[in-house]
Amino acid sequence: MKVENAVKEILNKVLDVKPEEIQPDKSLEESFGVDSTEMVEILIGLKKALGVNIGDNELKKAHTFNEIVAILKSKGALI
């Protein structure tokens, strides 16, 4: 599974969105109304799924799918 697919899977579980609904460069807040609580759930899911150490504030700065994937890859998340 690629990092991108893992992120889509977590977003599906937390936000109940289909992978095809995720627009890579569109803000998750704008697209799905993601709030801070949901971002924490996404963060925890990604930590567990990918086994990477991500600081709580790192993903809060990421607003798009592509930004999340870039952060994960910079942390060494490779699947």
What does this structure look like?
The protein has 79 residues and is mainly alpha-helical. It has one domain: Non-ribosomal Peptide Synthetase Peptidyl Carrier Protein, Chain A, CATH 1.10.1200. Helix content is 61%, strand content 0%. It is built from five helices and no strands. The longest helix has 15 residues, at 36-50. The mean pLDDT is 89.
Topology:
Elements: H1 3-15, H2 28-32, H3 36-50, H4 56-60, H5 65-74
Helix pairs in contact: 1-3, 1-5
What CATH architecture label applies?
A: Orthogonal Bundle
- Number of DSSP E strands: 0
* CATH fold-level assignment: Non-ribosomal Peptide Synthetase Peptidyl Carrier Protein, Chain A
Assign a percent range to the helix content. Answer: 55-70%
Number of helices: 5
CATH homologous superfamily, by name?
ACP-like
- The ordered H/E elements are HHHHH
Number of domains: 1
CATH class: Mainly Alpha
Separation of the first and last Cα atoms? 6 Å
The shape is globular
- By secondary-structure content and strand pairing, the structural class works out as mainly alpha
Indicate the low-confidence ranges by residue numbers. Answer: none
Rg calculated over all Cα atoms:
11 Å
- Strand content range: under 5%
Main sheet record: none
Instruction: Give the averaged pLDDT, no decimals.
Output: 89
